[in-house]
Design goal:
Elements (H helix, E strand, L loop, with lengths): L1 E4 L4 H15 L5 E6 L16 H15 L4 E7 L21 H15 L3 E5 L3 H4 L1 H17 L2 E6 L2 H7 L5 H9 L12 E3 L3 H12 L15 H5 L2 E5 L14 H12 L1
Parallel strand pairs: 1-2, 1-4, 2-3, 4-5
Antiparallel strand pairs: 5-7, 6-7
Helix pairs in contact: 1-8, 2-8, 3-5, 6-10
Bound molecules: zinc ion.
Length: 261
Protein backbone atom coordinates (compact mmCIF):
# COMPACT_ATOMS: atom_id res chain seq x y z
CA UNK A 1 0.00 0.00 0.00
CA UNK A 2 1.02 3.59 -0.52
CA UNK A 3 0.21 6.47 1.84
CA UNK A 4 0.60 10.01 0.55
CA UNK A 5 0.89 12.84 3.07
CA UNK A 6 1.54 16.56 2.86
CA UNK A 7 4.05 17.07 5.70
CA UNK A 8 6.26 15.11 8.08
CA UNK A 9 4.08 14.28 11.17
CA UNK A 10 0.82 13.82 9.19
CA UNK A 11 1.69 10.13 8.71
CA UNK A 12 1.78 9.63 12.48
CA UNK A 13 -1.14 11.90 13.44
CA UNK A 14 -3.66 10.64 10.88
CA UNK A 15 -2.47 7.11 9.98
CA UNK A 16 0.00 5.94 12.65
CA UNK A 17 -2.08 3.00 13.91
CA UNK A 18 -3.15 2.05 10.39
CA UNK A 19 0.37 1.97 8.94
CA UNK A 20 1.78 0.02 11.90
CA UNK A 21 -1.02 -2.54 11.76
CA UNK A 22 -0.63 -2.99 8.01
CA UNK A 23 3.12 -3.47 8.41
CA UNK A 24 2.50 -6.00 11.21
CA UNK A 25 0.08 -7.85 8.91
CA UNK A 26 2.86 -8.19 6.33
CA UNK A 27 1.94 -5.39 3.94
CA UNK A 28 4.74 -3.45 2.29
CA UNK A 29 4.05 0.12 3.37
CA UNK A 30 5.34 2.86 1.08
CA UNK A 31 5.17 6.36 2.55
CA UNK A 32 5.28 9.34 0.20
CA UNK A 33 5.65 12.80 1.76
CA UNK A 34 5.09 15.78 -0.52
CA UNK A 35 6.93 18.54 1.40
CA UNK A 36 9.45 18.76 4.23
CA UNK A 37 7.11 21.03 6.23
CA UNK A 38 9.83 23.66 6.20
CA UNK A 39 7.42 26.46 7.23
CA UNK A 40 6.59 24.80 10.53
CA UNK A 41 8.75 26.72 12.98
CA UNK A 42 10.77 24.54 15.32
CA UNK A 43 9.72 24.50 18.97
CA UNK A 44 13.23 23.42 19.97
CA UNK A 45 16.59 25.01 19.13
CA UNK A 46 18.17 23.60 15.98
CA UNK A 47 21.80 22.54 15.86
CA UNK A 48 24.24 25.06 14.38
CA UNK A 49 23.82 25.07 10.63
CA UNK A 50 20.79 22.76 10.78
CA UNK A 51 17.67 23.81 8.86
CA UNK A 52 14.05 23.09 9.75
CA UNK A 53 13.92 21.00 6.60
CA UNK A 54 16.84 18.80 7.70
CA UNK A 55 15.44 18.42 11.21
CA UNK A 56 11.99 17.49 9.99
CA UNK A 57 13.28 14.90 7.53
CA UNK A 58 15.36 13.28 10.29
CA UNK A 59 12.26 13.20 12.52
CA UNK A 60 10.23 11.72 9.68
CA UNK A 61 12.77 8.95 9.18
CA UNK A 62 12.48 8.01 12.87
CA UNK A 63 8.67 8.09 12.74
CA UNK A 64 8.64 5.95 9.58
CA UNK A 65 10.88 3.40 11.27
CA UNK A 66 8.54 3.21 14.28
CA UNK A 67 5.53 2.74 12.01
CA UNK A 68 7.13 -0.10 10.03
CA UNK A 69 7.43 1.81 6.76
CA UNK A 70 9.35 -0.19 4.12
CA UNK A 71 10.18 2.71 1.84
CA UNK A 72 10.06 6.46 2.35
CA UNK A 73 9.85 8.75 -0.69
CA UNK A 74 10.10 12.56 -0.55
CA UNK A 75 8.49 14.43 -3.42
CA UNK A 76 10.60 17.50 -2.60
CA UNK A 77 7.97 20.22 -2.96
CA UNK A 78 7.98 23.23 -0.64
CA UNK A 79 5.54 23.72 2.23
CA UNK A 80 2.80 26.16 1.09
CA UNK A 81 1.99 27.56 4.54
CA UNK A 82 -1.48 28.38 5.81
CA UNK A 83 -4.34 29.74 3.66
CA UNK A 84 -3.62 33.30 2.57
CA UNK A 85 0.14 33.15 3.12
CA UNK A 86 2.22 34.44 0.19
CA UNK A 87 4.34 31.26 0.49
CA UNK A 88 1.51 29.43 -1.30
CA UNK A 89 2.53 31.21 -4.49
CA UNK A 90 6.21 30.21 -4.27
CA UNK A 91 7.19 28.46 -7.50
CA UNK A 92 8.21 25.32 -5.60
CA UNK A 93 5.17 25.36 -3.27
CA UNK A 94 3.14 22.17 -3.32
CA UNK A 95 -0.07 24.20 -3.71
CA UNK A 96 1.36 25.82 -6.88
CA UNK A 97 2.45 22.51 -8.44
CA UNK A 98 0.71 20.84 -11.36
CA UNK A 99 -1.32 18.13 -9.57
CA UNK A 100 -1.45 15.89 -12.64
CA UNK A 101 2.32 15.82 -12.97
CA UNK A 102 2.74 14.86 -9.33
CA UNK A 103 -0.11 12.35 -9.58
CA UNK A 104 1.69 10.67 -12.47
CA UNK A 105 4.83 10.50 -10.37
CA UNK A 106 2.97 8.98 -7.41
CA UNK A 107 1.16 6.52 -9.68
CA UNK A 108 4.49 5.39 -11.16
CA UNK A 109 5.75 4.68 -7.63
CA UNK A 110 2.51 2.85 -6.78
CA UNK A 111 2.68 0.79 -9.98
CA UNK A 112 6.35 -0.09 -9.48
CA UNK A 113 5.52 -1.23 -5.93
CA UNK A 114 2.39 -3.10 -7.02
CA UNK A 115 0.37 -1.04 -4.53
CA UNK A 116 -3.33 -1.93 -4.70
CA UNK A 117 -4.32 0.65 -2.09
CA UNK A 118 -3.61 4.36 -1.90
CA UNK A 119 -4.32 6.56 1.12
CA UNK A 120 -4.47 10.35 0.83
CA UNK A 121 -6.23 13.41 2.24
CA UNK A 122 -9.95 13.97 1.81
CA UNK A 123 -11.17 16.65 -0.57
CA UNK A 124 -11.32 19.29 2.16
CA UNK A 125 -7.69 18.61 3.04
CA UNK A 126 -8.98 17.55 6.50
CA UNK A 127 -8.81 21.16 7.77
CA UNK A 128 -8.36 23.17 4.59
CA UNK A 129 -4.56 23.46 4.61
CA UNK A 130 -3.50 24.19 1.00
CA UNK A 131 -0.94 21.34 1.06
CA UNK A 132 -3.51 18.85 2.32
CA UNK A 133 -5.94 19.94 -0.39
CA UNK A 134 -3.16 19.45 -2.93
CA UNK A 135 -2.42 15.93 -1.68
CA UNK A 136 -6.11 15.13 -2.09
CA UNK A 137 -5.97 16.12 -5.78
CA UNK A 138 -2.69 14.32 -6.34
CA UNK A 139 -3.68 11.18 -4.42
CA UNK A 140 -7.17 10.84 -5.89
CA UNK A 141 -5.80 11.20 -9.42
CA UNK A 142 -2.92 8.80 -8.74
CA UNK A 143 -5.37 6.19 -7.40
CA UNK A 144 -7.45 6.49 -10.58
CA UNK A 145 -4.37 6.29 -12.81
CA UNK A 146 -3.16 3.11 -11.07
CA UNK A 147 -6.60 1.56 -10.54
CA UNK A 148 -5.82 1.31 -6.81
CA UNK A 149 -8.47 1.43 -4.11
CA UNK A 150 -8.39 4.97 -2.76
CA UNK A 151 -9.00 5.88 0.88
CA UNK A 152 -9.49 9.50 1.87
CA UNK A 153 -8.26 10.06 5.39
CA UNK A 154 -10.13 12.51 7.57
CA UNK A 155 -11.16 13.00 11.18
CA UNK A 156 -14.56 12.40 12.76
CA UNK A 157 -15.29 15.84 14.21
CA UNK A 158 -18.33 14.62 16.13
CA UNK A 159 -16.30 11.90 17.80
CA UNK A 160 -13.51 14.38 18.58
CA UNK A 161 -15.98 16.89 19.98
CA UNK A 162 -17.27 14.31 22.42
CA UNK A 163 -14.17 12.36 23.33
CA UNK A 164 -11.28 14.79 22.86
CA UNK A 165 -12.83 18.18 23.57
CA UNK A 166 -10.13 20.53 22.32
CA UNK A 167 -7.25 18.08 22.66
CA UNK A 168 -6.56 16.91 19.08
CA UNK A 169 -3.86 18.80 17.18
CA UNK A 170 -6.37 19.35 14.36
CA UNK A 171 -8.41 21.60 16.67
CA UNK A 172 -5.53 24.07 16.99
CA UNK A 173 -4.57 23.71 13.33
CA UNK A 174 -8.12 24.45 12.17
CA UNK A 175 -8.27 27.43 14.50
CA UNK A 176 -4.98 28.78 13.10
CA UNK A 177 -6.36 28.43 9.59
CA UNK A 178 -9.77 29.78 10.70
CA UNK A 179 -11.57 26.91 8.99
CA UNK A 180 -13.78 23.96 9.84
CA UNK A 181 -12.39 20.46 9.78
CA UNK A 182 -13.21 16.80 9.33
CA UNK A 183 -16.47 15.03 8.65
CA UNK A 184 -19.55 13.96 10.51
CA UNK A 185 -19.71 10.35 11.71
CA UNK A 186 -22.17 9.24 9.02
CA UNK A 187 -19.87 10.51 6.26
CA UNK A 188 -17.10 8.14 7.33
CA UNK A 189 -16.96 4.60 5.98
CA UNK A 190 -14.11 3.14 8.01
CA UNK A 191 -12.64 3.71 11.46
CA UNK A 192 -9.42 1.90 12.34
CA UNK A 193 -8.29 1.39 15.91
CA UNK A 194 -5.63 -0.68 17.63
CA UNK A 195 -4.32 -2.10 20.87
CA UNK A 196 -2.64 -0.19 23.69
CA UNK A 197 0.69 -1.14 22.08
CA UNK A 198 -0.37 0.36 18.73
CA UNK A 199 -1.36 3.54 20.56
CA UNK A 200 1.99 3.64 22.36
CA UNK A 201 3.79 3.34 19.01
CA UNK A 202 1.59 6.03 17.43
CA UNK A 203 2.36 8.41 20.29
CA UNK A 204 6.09 7.65 19.98
CA UNK A 205 5.92 8.31 16.22
CA UNK A 206 4.10 11.61 16.81
CA UNK A 207 6.59 12.79 19.43
CA UNK A 208 9.49 11.70 17.19
CA UNK A 209 8.52 14.94 15.44
CA UNK A 210 9.98 16.81 18.40
CA UNK A 211 10.43 20.08 16.50
CA UNK A 212 6.63 20.24 16.13
CA UNK A 213 5.02 18.10 18.84
CA UNK A 214 6.00 18.09 22.51
CA UNK A 215 5.10 15.09 24.70
CA UNK A 216 2.91 17.43 26.78
CA UNK A 217 0.94 18.32 23.62
CA UNK A 218 -0.21 14.70 23.49
CA UNK A 219 -0.55 13.56 27.12
CA UNK A 220 -0.74 9.80 27.56
CA UNK A 221 -4.01 10.11 29.49
CA UNK A 222 -6.58 11.32 27.01
CA UNK A 223 -4.49 10.05 24.10
CA UNK A 224 -6.99 7.32 23.27
CA UNK A 225 -9.88 9.82 23.15
CA UNK A 226 -8.09 12.09 20.69
CA UNK A 227 -5.97 9.66 18.69
CA UNK A 228 -7.40 6.17 19.28
CA UNK A 229 -9.21 6.06 15.95
CA UNK A 230 -8.22 6.86 12.38
CA UNK A 231 -10.94 7.63 9.88
CA UNK A 232 -11.29 7.01 6.18
CA UNK A 233 -13.74 7.41 3.34
CA UNK A 234 -13.33 4.68 0.79
CA UNK A 235 -13.66 5.52 -2.86
CA UNK A 236 -14.02 3.09 -5.78
CA UNK A 237 -13.24 0.40 -6.76
CA UNK A 238 -14.17 -1.67 -3.73
CA UNK A 239 -12.52 -2.83 -0.53
CA UNK A 240 -8.75 -2.57 -0.15
CA UNK A 241 -6.35 -3.68 2.56
CA UNK A 242 -7.54 -1.12 5.09
CA UNK A 243 -10.92 -2.84 5.26
CA UNK A 244 -9.12 -6.00 6.41
CA UNK A 245 -8.13 -4.15 9.61
CA UNK A 246 -11.77 -4.23 10.71
CA UNK A 247 -14.21 -1.40 11.04
CA UNK A 248 -14.39 0.12 14.51
CA UNK A 249 -17.01 2.60 13.28
CA UNK A 250 -19.82 1.15 15.39
CA UNK A 251 -17.57 0.96 18.41
CA UNK A 252 -16.58 4.59 17.82
CA UNK A 253 -20.25 5.60 17.58
CA UNK A 254 -21.01 3.68 20.75
CA UNK A 255 -18.10 5.28 22.55
CA UNK A 256 -19.21 8.74 21.47
CA UNK A 257 -22.80 8.02 22.48
CA UNK A 258 -21.56 6.71 25.83
CA UNK A 259 -19.63 9.88 26.50
CA UNK A 260 -22.62 12.00 25.49
CA UNK A 261 -25.15 10.25 27.72
ZN1 LIG B 1 0.11 18.56 7.44
Amino acid sequence: MLALHAHPDDEAIFTGITLRRLADAGARVVLVIATAGELGSSRVPLRTGETVRQRRIAELERSAELLGVSRLVLLGRRDSGLPGWSSGGHRHALAAADPLRLARRVSRIAAAEGAGTLVHDDEQGIYGHPDHRATYRIGATAARLTGATGYQMTVDREHLHLSARDAHLVHGAARAAAVGFGRTTVEISLAVTGTAEHLRIKRAAMTAHGSQIAPEDVPADGFVGAYGFEWFRRTDPGPGVLDALGNAHLVAGGLAAGVAS
